[in-house]
Specification:
The complex is a heterotrimer. Chain B is α+β, with helices and mostly antiparallel strands. In chain B, about 20% of the residues lie in helices and about 15% in strands. The radius of gyration of chain C is 23 Å and the shape is globular.
């Protein structure tokens, strides 16, 4: 059965919360609240995310990996280069001196951490993303959008719920 | 590749120099300068200009601090009280001026080497402080960190500057040495071109250089023989014997002369407490009057 | 006095900030023109120096470093307050930073770029600068990793790239706003491309929050390490007056200090130029001023400690350098530094000056003058009066080439900064909304529980 998107806009978070609560409590055929519901908001709002259920974030594992690899790469690249570089003494210090290498390892640790965190962010948040089928520039202004994907049969039920909660605007994807 | 190299030769990469390290072998080039013999005639400095193609910058640039004298004669007027910074009350004391020939001290633990961002200056296996002109980017950190300020920077492009080497003078330039372009640091090399030529010539005979076979330009021209240059490892060499007679140790940061009050020793090295371990020993002046 | 009007409509926030991208006051174009004129002075000087050799800067032996390195430290230092506002205050949940952190972060990025130029300008062989980069090559040559200058290069690269990424990530939601509201043209294309298709979905926000927090955590130790490493250029050397253990914290304090002073200056200029009176409120200015005062006192303390430890130490050359600073040819500048850095900030302790814009503008400029003098007084006197008496040189004076390049660098920074503020939203729209949202909720809660509503602080 073909699926369609529906975007409803609400004026504040309380209304959006009520809608999500109701969607979670009613079971609608052809609509899975955990996978087919996306909340779009103009600001970061952890409470709304809690309403959506426990969705883990994996960015920090990228961070750990990036930082460790950066540090290791830094230390071995530098020590290896020093060892190969003419084997000449400088200032009476050992050819592979620890204090300078630790400074550089520290910098590489941070560099790796930051770069791979950003990479992790892009991967985990799915950016750069294709624009979703329904979008309103009001979402980046002051309204909260709820985007759902459902079977054709469930669309009218969802619409009713949105209307009941005083949705400011409901956009509907044209039927296929 | 490099990790294996690191692990295999780890101890070699971790030794510090010169304290607790094996001495250089077969050469450790060093110098000793007898200040009692120095008359301040500046012949050494002139010889250095000729041998090493040093640019003659002229009065104005000299006054601006852009001179390139690798070997310089410093003139000091004795003060009334050595513990005070006040200048002498008499303009020309009876003792006369004191002179100190100053050039790169070829430190065993040179402060200039660690700070160079590109590794253009290094410690060579025969105990010199080398300077790779081609590698130098001109950050001047080496000079900033040199306690003796004996490094000279090419503030201008001297080979193309007028009157540095007038037309007829270009004939006297030393072909064994490059001309340095602008933006490069340079300094006394202990006439490394002579050392290398000497090493090559005795290599065919399968022996090492003997004392006196390589002379630096300044040593060669010194009319009073105040400058001695040679291989410190070679117990036959004059420089070795002088260092030994003065009980000056390469790896010490305080010499016998300063430990005992009336030791009768004269040998010391400049700013030893900084632990740069210079390769030049000076013997302090004992005579009372001007020559 | 409230930090921000809590009843402000979100749509108005968008409208006001977006307006700054299109219609600044006339003063904006004047600033831009002056900046370009200043840059052309510096470019002229640099071209001359590049062709003639470093000698035209009047640097000499022993004065091998001069205003270039001093100004380099100055710009690096200036960059630190962006991180203070965006990362440290972010972790401390100080939400008053929200309307002003974006431009502070931009300041970080652009002052780092300016600082980087000084390293280049200072090199004797600029055309060979890549020798100091660790790139694989046939000859197996690497830079010398022992040199503090190389740590500098590494630290600045890390800091610059991380700051740009941090600035960019924090700006993505705002870029989406721009994309949604701009009319067609190159800017719309730019914002569409840069906003990466951001739509503010829950998944995006969830990952965004963690990412932002993580990078903030990385940036704090990074910022501290960057200026400690710059301090190492001096502290790791052996010269009297430089070889000081307390240099790294002293440099970090000085960095935050000059950065905060610069934030006050730019705050005032931006507020007027882009008509941000409603967002960059006097109450926020007051908080920044108090922060600056606190840091000024820390700097004063560390400065005094440095003098005291040299004075009570037995290292005669270091002591001589200190005496030279206070009584020698540099004395006017050294005392000027003490005056601008430690006496002038006392003004900021008075409540009536904390929101007085003309006074603050002058004061903040004086503070930065003091901080610039501080850097010069770290670099130059040691050269003039080092270990080796024969090389003492108390008469060296930087030539107009040096002054010209230093002068032009301010134009370069201003140009980059002003262009940024015109092209990108310099007030964070989504975070001001968050601030307004949370504050009005807190006020409502207070009212509901029958207590009298006061300001959030």
């Amino acid at each position: 059965m073909s699926q369609r998107h529906l975007l409803a806009l609400f004026s504040n978070f309380d209304e959006a919360e009520q809608v999500i609560k109701e969607l979670r409590n009613t079971s609608i055929k052809g609509f899975d609240v955990n996978n087919d519901l996306v909340v779009k908001s103009p600001i970061e709002h952890p409470e709304v995310e809690e309403m959506l259920g426990d969705k883990p974030v994996y960015v920090q594992w990228f961070t750990l990996f990036g930082a460790l690899m950066g540090g290791l790469l830094g230390f071995f690249l530098i020590s290896g280069a020093q060892a190969n570089f003419y084997e000449q003494i400088k200032g009476g210090k050992p050819i592979v001196p620890f204090p300078p290498n630790f400074v550089l390892t520290y910098e590489m640790f941070i560099l790796g951490g930051v770069f791979i965190t950003i990479l992790g962010f892009l991967v985990c948040a799915g950016l750069p993303a294709r624009r979703s089928p329904l979008y309103s520039s009001k979402v980046s202004e002051d309204q909260i959008g709820i985007l759902v994907k459902a079977d054709d049969a469930a669309i009218s039920t969802l619409k009713n719920i949105f209307t009941k909660h005083e949705a400011l605007e409901i956009q509907e994807e044209a039927g296929k | 590749m490099s990790v294996t190299n690191l692990l295999e030769n780890w101890s070699e990469f971790r030794h510090a120099h010169p304290v607790g390290d094996v001495p250089h072998d077969p050469y450790k080039w060093a110098m000793s300068i007898d200040l009692d013999a120095c008359t301040g005639c500046n012949a050494c400095s002139v010889a250095c200009y000729a041998e090493n193609n040093l640019p003659v910058v002229g009065k104005e640039k000299y006054a601006a601090g852009h001179s390139m004298h690798w070997m310089r004669i410093e003139r000091y007027w004795p003060v009334d009280d050595t513990t005070s910074l006040e200048p002498a009350t008499r303009e020309f004391p009876d003792q006369g001026a004191q002179f100190l020939p100053m050039m790169c001290q070829q430190c065993e633990a040179a402060p200039c080497e660690t700070v160079c961002p590109v590794g253009a200056t290094n410690h060579t296996p025969d105990g010199l402080n080398s300077q790779a002109y081609n590698r130098c980017v001109g950050s001047r950190y080496c000079s900033a960190n040199c306690p003796f300020k004996v490094r000279y920077f090419n503030w201008y492009d001297y080979p193309t500057t007028e009157n540095v080497w007038p037309a007829e003078m270009t004939q006297q330039l030393n072909p064994d040495i490059t001309l340095r372009s602008k933006g490069v640091m340079e300094k006394c090399t202990f006439c490394v071109q002579r050392i290398r030529a000497g090493e090559r010539s005795v290599k065919n005979e399968g022996r090492v250089l003997k004392d006196g076979e390589v002379q630096t330009a300044c040593q060669q021209v010194c009319p009073t023989g105040a400058i001695t240059f040679g291989n410190l490892i070679d117990s036959e060499s004059k420089v070795h014997q002088q260092w030994k007679a003065q009980r000056v140790e390469l790896t010490a940061d305080e010499q016998e002369k300063d430990k005992e009050a009336d030791s009768g020793l004269r040998g010391y090295r400049i700013l030893e407490e900084l632990r740069a371990y210079p390769s030049v020993m000076y013997m302090e002046r004992v005579r009372e009057s001007a020559i | 006095m409230k930090d921000i009007n809590e009843d402000i409509a979100w749509a108005k926030i968008n409208k006001d900030v977006l307006k700054s991208l299109e219609s600044p006051r006339k003063l904006y174009w004047v600033i831009l023109a002056v900046a370009i004129a200043m840059i052309s002075v510096a470019v002229g000087c640099e071209v001359y120096q590049y062709n003639m050799g470093m000698g035209v800067s009047n640097l000499n032996n022993p004065h091998v470093w001069g205003l270039y390195i001093a100004t380099f430290i100055f710009w690096i230092g200036m960059s630190h307050s962006g991180t203070l506002l965006s990362a440290i205050l972010h972790l401390m949940h100080a939400d008053w930073r929200k309307p002003i952190y974006r431009f502070a972060e931009a300041m970080t990025t652009f002052s780092l770029m300016t600082a980087g130029l000084f390293v280049m300008v200072h090199l004797g062989r600029l055309w060979q600068f890549y020798y100091s980069l660790p790139y694989p090559n046939d000859r197996g040559l690497w830079p010398n990793f022992q040199s503090p200058l190389l740590w500098d290069a590494m630290a600045i690269f890390t800091y610059l790239s991380s700051s740009i990424l941090f600035l960019f990530v924090g700006m993505i939601p705002d870029l989406a706003i721009c994309r949604d509201n701009m009319h067609d043209g190159w800017r719309k294309k730019l914002y569409t491309w840069l906003s990466l298709g951001w739509e503010g979905t829950d998944r995006q926000w969830r990952n965004f929050r963690i990412t932002y927090l993580t990078i903030a955590c990385f940036l704090i130790p990074l910022a501290v390490s960057v200026h400690s490493i710059v301090a190492s250029d001096f502290a790791m050397s052996q010269q009297p007056g430089w070889h000081v253990t307390s240099f790294p914290p002293y440099f970090v304090a000085g960095a935050l200090y000059s950065g905060c002073a610069a934030i006050i200056t730019l705050f005032i200029i931006l507020r007027y130029t882009f008509k941000f009176e409603e967002y960059m409120t006097l109450s926020i200015l007051k908080k920044t001023v108090r922060l600056t005062f606190a840091i000024a006192m820390i700097w004063t303390y560390l400065n005094a400690i440095e003098f005291a430890s040299v004075w009570y130490g037995h290292d005669q050359p270091s002591k001589d350098v200190l005496i030279q600073k206070a009584t020698g040819p540099y004395a006017p500048f050294w005392w000027g530094m003490i005056f601008c850095g430690s006496i002038v900030p006392l003004m900021l302790a008075f409540k009536r000056f904390q929101t007085n814009i003309p006074v603050l503008l002058v004061t903040s400029l004086l503070l930065n003058l003091g901080m610039w003098l501080e850097r010069w007084m770290i670099v130059a006197p040691t050269f003039s009066h080092g270990y080796y008496p024969w090389t003492w040189d108390h008469n060296q004076w930087p030539s107009w080439v040096q002054w010209g390049i230093v002068f032009g660098s301010f134009g370069w920074f201003t140009l980059l900064f002003m262009v940024f503020c015109k092209v990108f939203p310099s007030v964070s729209m989504y975070e001001v909304k968050e601030m307004v949202y949370h504050r009005s909720r807190a006020t409502k809660k207070l009212e509901a529980s029958g207590m009298q509503a006061k300001g959030a602080h």
